[in-house]
C-alpha cells in the first residue's frame, strides 16, 4: 500500500539509494548496508518496508529499482539537502565542512513554501557547496583525482563523500569545488595539486579517490570504488 508521507527513516534510505544510483554503483542491499554502515538484516527489513510502501521494487537479480513515487521522493529529499547546504554556507555564512549534518536534520522538516524561499535566497547557485547539483540530473561526470596523470590541468568538480570528518580534512587541505591547478605529484600514497593561486593541495591517495575532477588530458571515466565512499568512520555522506 502506498502512502503519501515517507518516514524520516524511509527518506534516509531513499536518499542513500539515490546516491548509489548517481555514483553509478549497483543499487543492491549490500551497497546500501555498506553506505549506511548498518547490518544487512536491518537493511533488509527497511527495504521490505520501502517495497511495501511502493517506493522501490526488487528484481530477480535482487537489485533495487525506484518506482515513480520512490524516485520523486528520493529526488525531492536530495534536492532539499543540497539546497539547505547552499543556504547555510551562502546566506548564513557557515563553513562548507560544517553544513552536511545540519542539512541531514533539516531536510525532513521542510515545507514547499520554505523550499521556494530558500531557492530564491541562494540566487544563481546551482550546486551544494560540495559540488552536487541541486536540480538532480545536471551532473558533470568527471574522473577521480587519483587517476589523473602528472602535468594535467584539473578543476575540482565534486567531493563525492560528504562524511563530515572527511570534509574537515578536505577543507584543511584546501581542496574545494572550483579549485583549478595542475597535477604536480602522484605517488602510491599521495596526490599533490599545485593550485593556480599558488596553493599546494596534498591529499592521501584514498581521499583523492573521492574527489571528482575535470582533467586535461583526462584519464578514462571510472566509477569510484564503493569502499572509498565509506572511507570515513562516519556514515557515507550525501
Ligand atoms: Zn551533504
Ligand atoms: Zn553537499
Walk me through the structure:
By secondary structure, the chain is an alpha+beta fold. The chain contains 8 helices and 8 strands; from the N terminus they run αααββαααββαβββαβ. The radius of gyration is 18 Å and the shape is globular. Mean pLDDT is 90; it is low at 231-238. The structure holds zinc ion (2 copies). One zinc ion binds at residues 81, 85, 100, 103, 162, 237-238.
Task: Provide keyphrases for this structure.
single chain, 238 residues, 6-stranded antiparallel sheet, two-stranded antiparallel ribbon, 8 helices, 16% strand, binds zinc ion
Short description:
By secondary structure, the protein is an alpha+beta fold. Helices cover 38% and strands 16% of the residues.
What form results from the Cα inertia axes? Answer: globular
Report the sheet with the most strands, covering strand number, pairing sense and barrel closure: 6 strands, antiparallel
Stretches with pLDDT under 50, minimum 5 residues: 231-238
Termini Cα gap: 28 Å
Residue share in β-strands: 15-25%
Number of DSSP helices? 8
Helical coverage, percent range: 25-40%
Helix-strand string: HHHEEHHHEEHEEEHE
Q: Structural class, please?
A: alpha+beta
Cofactors and ligands present? zinc ion
What Rg do the Cα atoms give?
18 Å
How would you write the strand order of the largest sheet?
3-8-4-5-6-7
Q: Report mean pLDDT, rounded to a whole number.
A: 90
The beta-strand count equals: 8
List the helices and strands and how they pair.
Layout: H1 8-23, H2 29-36, H3 40-52, E1 56-58, E2 64-66, H4 68-90, H5 100-106, H6 112-121, E3 143-144, E4 153-159, H7 164-173, E5 180-186, E6 190-195, E7 200-204, H8 205-208, E8 211-216
Antiparallel strand pairs: 1-2, 3-8, 4-5, 4-8, 5-6, 6-7
Helix pairs in contact: 1-2, 1-3, 1-4, 2-3, 4-5, 4-6
The chain binds zinc ion (ZN) (2 copies).
